[in-house]
Amino acid sequence: MTGLAKGAWWATCGAALAGCMLAAAQPARAPDDGGAAGAAGAALPAVAPRNVLLIVIDTLRQDHLGCYGYGRPTSPHLDAFAAAGARFQHCLAASSWTEPSTASLLSGLHAARHGAHEYSVLPDELELISERLAAAGWRTLAVSGNPNASPQFRFDQGFDQFWFDDSDKAREYPDVSELVAHAEALLAQDDGRPTFCWLHVMNVHGPYVAPEAFRDRFRRPGSRDFPFQSEVWKEVMRKGEVARRADVTPADVQDLEDRYDAAIAWTDDVLGRFLARRRATTAGQNELVVITADHGEELFDHGGFGHGFTLHREVVDVPLLLCGPGIAPARVAAPVGLVDVAATLLELAGQLPSVGGAGGRFGDGQSLVPLLTGGEFERDLPLVAQLERERQGQAFLLQSWPSRLIETRVDYAGRRDVAELFDRVADPAERRDLLLAEPERSTRLRALLAARRAALEAQGMAAQRAALDPEQQRQMEALGYGGP
């Protein structure tokens, strides 16, 4: 992306070119909860954006981006994008793997309500943001490289066109450059209607695919070859042989991180050039762009790998960045969730009226528009996350900031009926379990978790599990997922 293209893009996002260049040039800093809660005094334009582009970077954990304090140069384009718009410091995914979390992102419902666990088909009665916008006359487009967020599980509800390639099971997923090309082809078919486009890219997901030049850029001396789904990876995560953790060396973890970071940098490079081209088009001049992730990735943080096995911070803390007409640069400290994204986009698109100035609702999610305009925002119910993957992991998380309580029914390591309490401010890495040290807080939060879970499950939908054929099963295994 040329400097001129960057400048046009950032300026269009609502920040002065000089200010954005200065922000992008600053060294990466750790998140600061003392930062602005929103764009104080700012007002969104009376005219809604003509187009909405929702980009989901699969498996992108928040703390490996420069704009969230990471020290390696993985994300220069995303960092510049974040400097020009709203960056939410604390965004909680709805689950730690793709299907339930993406269903929550698009519907605003917590996983306990939509029920899309472990290869389930989305329920008929589930309303996605695509359906709401299509009913309002919008053109709705989707491009996904993940089979867990594809038409085979009915993620195409409400979309006029949905690109997903299910013909080639020999590869894990299409490259980000290929997916971007398909999105551009669909977007180019402009018929005059406002457009919603969801683009779901995959390279940050294992096996962390990146060109060799990017691998070389991040490969550090002394690392030892430790690819995704190595022998130790499978022994620990698939067979629960936790004694094999002792065989994982610092050099192994270093190589794993290098592969992961290279994939982020490649994705950042492709998306940066895509967004520059987009901003150069007439349609892109009045477009709201949202960048987030469905979940993160464990890189041996708590003795494991991958995702969809636990609910620790490395797999549920995701980035959330918004840039577009009228959105002033802001660092938003208030904790939010992926369930809030759909309500926010609908309100910004003029399709969800605010309620008493407090922002509208869609499903369980609350619109974050008040946080973008310096208004009041008060969450009426605590955020939750849920994992239901049989023996691989069953857990429920309740967040009452800064507390996070995780109740694990079973996990891949053989633990059963374990509760853990963490303070996300005092202990951001979740290393100190406070359950026994703070019995009053533990008792209160465990009662709140039980009540919240029961209330959500009482409103749950019936989602039926899909039968995977052998080829689909092999593809899931290649991505690191065990079958049902």
Shape estimate: globular
Share of helical residues: 25-40%
Gyration radius over CA = 21 Å
CATH class label: Alpha Beta
Unreliable parts: 1-41
| CATH level-four homologous superfamily name | Alkaline Phosphatase, subunit A
At CATH level 3, the topology is Alkaline Phosphatase, subunit A
Strand arrangement in the largest pleated sheet = 5-4-6-1-7-11-2-12
Distance between the termini: 43 Å
Q: How many structural domains are formed by the residues?
A: 1
Quick rundown:
The chain has helices spanning 3-12, 17-25, 76-84, 98-107, 111-114, 129-135, 176-187, 212-218, 231-239, 250-279, 313-316, 341-348, 369-372, 439-458, 470-478; strands at residues 51-57, 86-88, 91-92, 139-144, 161-163, 195-201, 287-292, 298-299, 305-306, 317-318, 320-323, 330-332, 336-337, 361-362, 365-366, 383-388, 393-400, 403-411, 416-423. It has 484 residues and is of the alpha/beta class.
Task: Explain this structure.
- This protein is an alpha/beta fold and 484 residues long.
- The protein has one domain (3-382): 3-Layer(aba) Sandwich (Alkaline Phosphatase, subunit A), CATH 3.40.720.
- It is 31% helix and 17% strand.
- It has 15 helices and 19 strands.
- Strand 17 (393-400) and strand 18 (403-411) form a beta hairpin.
- Helix 8 (212-218) packs across helix 10.
List keywords for this structure.
484 residues; alpha/beta; Alkaline Phosphatase, subunit A; 4-stranded antiparallel sheet; 31% helix; 17% strand; globular; disordered N terminus
